[in-house]
Amino acid sequence: MRKIILFAATCCLLQSTFAESIFPSAPLSKFSLIVQPQIKVVPENTVHKRMTLKERLLMKWYKKKMNRTVSEEKQKKNIKTLGLLSILVALIGPFAALLAFTSASPGIFFAAGIAFCLTAIILGFISLKRRKKLTDKTGTSKVPALIGIILGGLAILIPLIFIIGLSLFYE
Length: 171
What we know:
The protein is mainly α and about 170 residues long.
């Protein structure tokens, strides 16, 4: 256990040192990149000069970042899917918790129900956040995400209120 904690602390302390040496905090314009309309990145003045490892790594990273554009329709489809998945998982959560009363190991099902509800809340918030970033919000609705968040929250709060009420009753 000590070795794991020591390793984690060492990684945290040395992370900033290695990150600064590999990826400098200087802007990419220092490396004089020209961005073509077809997302081709061509470095200037590299015909006769070999690029250093640092510049090659930054070039690959920049090319990947430029090619990572996702169409607006695909983003809308992903937002709709996340919202509906949030509702689905929020409905599965209470049923998994109800299975706790019928099984031999109720703790597993109750924990799974709470995990499903937390997942529904997280998926709902991710869907709302991605919808907020869209420029054209037509065709997407935040209602499924909100329903998933509300159902997930209720499915967590109702058993907690029930447990608190039982503990006060049997006091």
